[in-house]
DNA sequence: GGCCGTTTCGTTTTT
DNA sequence: CGAAACGGCC
């Protein structure tokens, strides 16, 4: 293989060829950043570097997958041997090898955010603290912040600065919670996402021989999206590169959008200080977008104060102006976008896959989906509710996790009474207290339950323990797939789902089968050397997306958040919801830095487009249960108007629903809010569960009668969540929306 | 313990 | 709005 470098421009070539010594590539949007990385790796291998000695780190799974595919296409099978992946996946792999050094089991569990929050909730409760003050979310955020800065609980507790901070915030016990949380995670043999990085740092700090091994092993390190790394990640790479000093980082400060996870542009500045011999290369020519798009993006980003000097330019054609769609409501906005896509497809002979619709929050996808469905345009959603977050999937995974690691407290809590075996919350809480008091693991107690208690509950617990023990045996002789199938069967999970013949039940059953298939594929894949269930679970914990059948059909319009869109490009891009408070997000407007990050996010969105960019906003929008009137985003004003074509495509003014003022807004203004009494009770939003196994005869528009609330009209029927619950939107007197029990409704047909 | 209805609460992005 | 916590009752 002879690598052809003529297709690269001068700075790109420089970045590829400068293999020895530290290198920083400041790469503007669309400047061929990934290309440089791939050529660089190919070049290294061509110069007979063993792929095993190259480590390429990315920030997201998607970026890692894309890089892997492209490099495999270029250099073939050898690419498999490169250590390439996200920070979290690569270092969880290393932690797995070296777990003993940290006194962790090698099959440690990885807690996702839900596990962490649930664990914190128990800890807060056990510590008898007020969970209104110590909200699990807030506490977890604080702990995460500390870990990203490599502050251990020991340091945190003794740090006067943090203590003062917590006192002011009214949360003096924060340090103690951090400590308890870490100890419980450790006892459960579990690490959360931040621990994966934190503990890698600890491993390298306390075990010089381990560090030494990896330092010498990895001769070349590459970090993609360097602007998104936090201190913890930076220090890991710095340590790993300390021997060979062949660290290449690629990034763009204008696209730094992960400060909320501790990413710090400061890393770029520190990098220059840490490596005086650093070579810096700037890629400023954009090959992706039209001149209009590049220039309008530049006109936006110059409003940011904090940025490196860089001038992105392009040789490409001028292109069409940027379109701006002004709609009266969110629903109309979606319709207009769908219509626009339809017309563009016809006029330009384009395919679905040429389009992407980007938004700030996942919740915004709903309207757009509906509009696309109505126009028969196929789409796919990236991110959002993932396959792995479905209840039935989490249930089976919890079983598998527990089979692999009997100390996993969160998994145990999830499965011990699933299917129902008469072990309630009270019992579980009691067991946890027992375990803590005697300083043994929960499993120790459950495995020998008769020494602690007797009676019917004890029998149930003993039966559960025996079930788990029977899987232990299977683990020794069978492969991951066989164990998983056995667990699914013998735990009763599969049976319970199989018996549920509702459409949702059938789909849940299929999902579980799909998970089992995935495990089978994992086992059958010759590329995977380690076929244990533990490895599968760790891999899966770090995944967020699922390649289902929908995603395999490539010709679909792509819907996703701007965060997920980073690194991708599309011919035509729509950015919807360009409204103040939504984008920039209301939650982000705390400081000037926050606003700048939102602006960079918009910059990322704009620069995804190759040929055509369309922005849209709605004058009123359904949000948090209310219709709110909206102001156009300040970012629209910051765009240079000469590149914009305002296509005021909303219909008539009176078509716009009049924005309604709601209780929440009055409340904010300080006015007293009265609850609307229903039948004398202050039932503002009555709701109820029902069994969808009842025939779903209910349709919008039907007149129904409720024993308590009287007659009304059904405005919507929907199934809620994965549980056996559903809600009816029920309009009474044309004004108020109530949520009612389905079971008790009389249907007047 | 578990069902069922009620209340509260968070509402952003990813690993 | 929707998820999850809560609380009363069998």
TrEMBL record:
Keyword set includes Secreted: no
Residues the record lists as binding ATP: 27-34
Gene3D superfamilies per UniProt: 1.10.10.160, P-loop containing nucleotide triphosphate hydrolases (3.40.50.300), PCRA, domain 4 (1.10.486.10)
Catalytic activity of the protein: Couples ATP hydrolysis with the unwinding of duplex DNA by translocating in the 3'-5' direction; ATP + H2O = ADP + phosphate + H(+)
Pfam families: PcrA_UvrD_tudor, UvrD-helicase, UvrD_C
Entry EC number(s): 5.6.2.4
Keywords for the protein's UniProt record, in alphabetical order: ATP-binding, DNA-binding, Helicase, Hydrolase, Isomerase, Nucleotide-binding
Residues of the UvrD-like helicase ATP-binding domain: 6-290
Cellular component GO terms, alphabetical: cytosol; DNA helicase complex
Single GO term (MF): ATP hydrolysis activity
Biological processes annotated in GO: recombinational repair
Location of the UvrD-like helicase C-terminal domain: 291-567
The protein's enzyme class: isomerase
Family membership noted in the UniProt record: Belongs to the helicase family. UvrD subfamily.
PANTHER family from the UniProt entry: ATP-DEPENDENT DNA HELICASE SRS2 (PTHR11070:SF2), UVRD / RECB / PCRA DNA HELICASE FAMILY MEMBER (PTHR11070)
Record-given protein name: DNA 3'-5' helicase
Organism: Catalinimonas alkaloidigena
